[in-house]
Amino acid sequence: MIIIGGGLGGLSTGCYARMNGYRTRIFEMHEIPGGSCTGWGRSDFTFDWCISWLLGNGPGNEMYQIWLELGALQGKEMRHFDVFNIVRGRDGRAVRFYSDPDRLESHLLGISPVDAVPIREFCDGVRTFRKALAVYPFLKPVGLMRRAERWRMLASFLPYFATIRRSISVLMSDYALRFRDPLLREAFNFILYEKHPAFPVLPFYFQLASHANQAAGVPEGGSLALARSIEQRYLGLGGEVTYNARVEEVLVEDDRAVGVRLSDGREFRADIVVSAADGHTTVMKLLGGRYLNDTYRRLYTSLIDEPGQLSPGYVALFLGLRRPFPTGDPCTTYLLSERETAGLTGIRCPSMNVQFRTRHYPELAPRDSTVVFATYFSDIAPWRALHRGPEQFSRVRRGEELHTLPVKHGREYAEAKRRVRNGIVAFLEERFPGFAEAVAVADVSTPLTQVRYTGVYDGTFPGWNPFVEGAETVEKEIKRRGPVLPGLSNFYLSGVWATIGGLIRAAAAGRHVVQFVCRDDGLEFAASVDLGGPPPTHLVLPVDRGAEEAELVEETRPTSTVSTGAPA
């Protein structure tokens, strides 16, 4: 089996294929594993790009078993905050979205007693989902379930059916309009850091419930360490991986996938080919658009370019600071004024998420220093309008072809990145005096950075936007036919583009695709937990207990269009 792509989807596919006796080789164009689950060093800081929460990193759900099978968590400390996110309004007031629904309800009622009905309804929904998570299926794809298994799955959801049905049929943007308090009316849209206009209430319940169950924290070491752990599990199972290897074409003979051709002209043969690259690259480039039914043709030639179908890209600013900022919260979404968004190229919504990342990963920075991670949703088009030259460029260095080296995008692009950096630093200086002079290292990534490192279509992460037509079409097609393309045998799809969601979905996709491969080969699927390390430990980290008292002081101050409040 040849697997294209060494992100979490490809690594997971490789692990489960090895557990079932398949000889495997992964080809990854980057020099390291992980794909979007990554980080990089600047000076003596490590900037972690991906994991702000990891669904399933605690027990009581099927997601957790997948991570243990992949060796992702063993021997690590799982860190959980008691506040999932803080949303701070333009007037300086803040809403703390506690993971505990009882504490959340008390906090929200303290902000707006007149909104008791929608507050209690929302918190009751989180309580219900805390129980429902235990029966949510991740281990086996619905398309492979027998009728009896499907009935058992549906029966397990019966106690929660009413809440699930209501939460999936109401958009959060509509639910939020029920609040009379203007801050709550806006803040509820930003629970998941940014505003997701197409999201119903269900993913908000799911996320907060997972967090409350201590199953959505962060793993010690961060994103790249997680990918490295799965890589080691894969190599320990006897798998092979080749880095700096960019696949240019899937080789096909008599409508059967037989191998791949790399960018340097080398060809490798296999009985089975699995692509964990993004969907557009796979079907339109590696296969030249030859194996498309009407559904896939519409997905990848027209629907993919319609607004809202793909998850938007990010602009991210990393800052390494040569002093601690103990009052910086782990995660705050700021609602911005028009003035504050002026220099933020491509911003889709007047908000920005700011994480004092050292609270998550203190081991990734020197002692008595701070890493800040500030992000906002951004389309790729404004950045493409500024850049010059290729978006990716392969070069030979010391006899080895490399595909993710920096490319020069020109003066206008660099100037836009400087404006982003300077604007965000100035914004944070107003809230954290001494912030600007403490900055030692800064790095800005854009959707074009994502293209350079992963080749993903339009810099999107993680692929199809949930709860819209494209995502629902993909799910229906794979449930009906499996992760395959019509008319092409011995070829399978894996990774986030063959499912909907983030890292746990990528990991589960690897398990699922190997289950389909085993079925097609007449084999009984097998999987086992990695026993090579001790179970993970768990630590709950309280966000500043004095924060709410500080808010009471803050609310007595005059307000303006710029928040002048002291941070929690």
Automatic annotation (TrEMBL):
Domain of life of the native organism: Bacteria
Signal peptide: none
Gene3D superfamilies reported in the protein's UniProt record: FAD/NAD(P)-binding domain
Name listed for the protein in its UniProt record: NAD(P)/FAD-dependent oxidoreductase
The species this protein was found in: Kitasatospora aburaviensis
